[in-house]
Specification:
It is a single chain. By secondary structure, the chain is α/β, with parallel strands linked by helices. The chain has ten helices and eight strands. It has a five-stranded mixed β-sheet, with helices on both faces. A three-stranded antiparallel β-sheet has the order 1-2-3, with no helix packed on it. A hairpin with a 6-residue loop joins strand 2 and strand 3. The longest helix has 22 residues. It is elongated and about 70 Å long.
Length: 303
């Protein structure tokens, strides 16, 4: 897999090393290189600015207003504005991020970052974009009689109950029959918390499948026209009627493996929402493969 990514990255770098192709790629998949309006108060109608060649800067282009002739950097109002890096290296960084690169040293090598602090800032900015995208585009799951499996999990546990006691970080999640998934970090598992999560993430008229946790019945009863089926895990993993929570439990396994691979741990609790947003975005878009990188960029940058 690593060799495949490295070969694809080489092709990607060669393709975008041409300034014209880089500009075209940016325009095609990211509106911030083609939809900037002139912001001068004295400029009539504040038209969209046009790109022109500008060899005095490593980007190779800049914006110019067709009316007042004022200019702006192509980085204006974009994610790139906070980083002093060429556009090509910016896209290389995004490419690495969406190919599950977790080593900060790799970002420093490929993107030209001079310090680990800057490289970590870059990755954090990308994670925040994932979270923002998820928040802005979240859709409730279930409804129309569709089955939604709900479960909760402790995100981090001590191995063999050895070592210092970790603060409990609970995540509630749900998955429907199409594979759509939601994840929520919560402070507790009370009925009040469950009711709030259910109403934020699920549609009425849903068949809820859960384990026997005591907070679920009240949460389900608060959802209009919904039903509740329970599997008792102390007796079996699949009830005699076929009810189970194996899909959401598999989602927990995938999430925790991914977090361990990226060295996300309990020491970074304040970043948990970012990690969940990153995971959900990548789970939804990255499966389209390397050939669909442009479409990932479109979804990622065009919130």
């Amino acid at each position: 897999m690593t060799d495949q990514i490295d070969n694809s990255l080489k092709k990607f770098i060669i393709y975008l090393s041409d300034q014209t192709r880089l500009l075209q790629f940016s325009r095609t998949y990211s509106y911030w290189l083609s939809r900037l309006r002139c912001s001068k108060v004295t400029c009539i109608d504040n038209p969209y600015m046009e790109t022109e060649s500008y060899t005095s800067h490593s980007d190779g282009f800049r914006f110019r207003c067709p009316k007042c002739r004022s200019t702006k950097s192509i980085r204006t109002d974009s994610l790139m504005s906070g980083f002093n890096m060429p556009a090509l290296e910016f896209f290389i960084g995004i490419y690495l991020f969406f190919n599950f690169e977790s080593k900060i040293s790799r970002y420093m090598k490929e993107c030209g970052f001079k310090s680990k602090k800057t490289a970590r800032k870059f990755v954090k900015v990308l994670r925040n974009v994932c979270l923002e995208h998820y928040i802005l585009n979240v859709e409730r799951i279930g409804g129309n009689g569709q089955i939604v499996q709900i479960d909760e999990t402790l995100l981090f546990k001590r191995k063999g109950n050895v070592g210092r006691v970790l603060r409990q970080i609970w995540i509630i999640g749900g998955i429907d029959e199409t594979g759509e998934l939601f994840l929520r970090k919560v402070e507790n598992r009370t009925s009040e918390t469950m009711i709030e999560v259910f109403h934020e993430t699920c549609n009425p008229s849903t068949q809820f499948w859960t384990d026997g946790w005591s907070a679920y019945p009240r949460a389900v009863s608060s959802m209009d026209d919904s039903t509740h089926e329970v599997v008792n895990h102390s007796e079996n993993f699949v009830s005699p009627s076929g009810v189970h929570t194996q899909n959401i439990e598999n989602a927990w396994k995938c999430l925790k493996v991914w977090m361990r691979k990226n060295n996300y741990n309990h020491e970074s609790e304040r970043n948990i929402p970012e990690y969940l947003g990153e995971y959900l975005f990548k789970r939804k878009y990255v499966d389209i493969g390397v050939s669909g990188f442009g479409e990932i960029i479109r979804a990622f940058l065009n919130n």
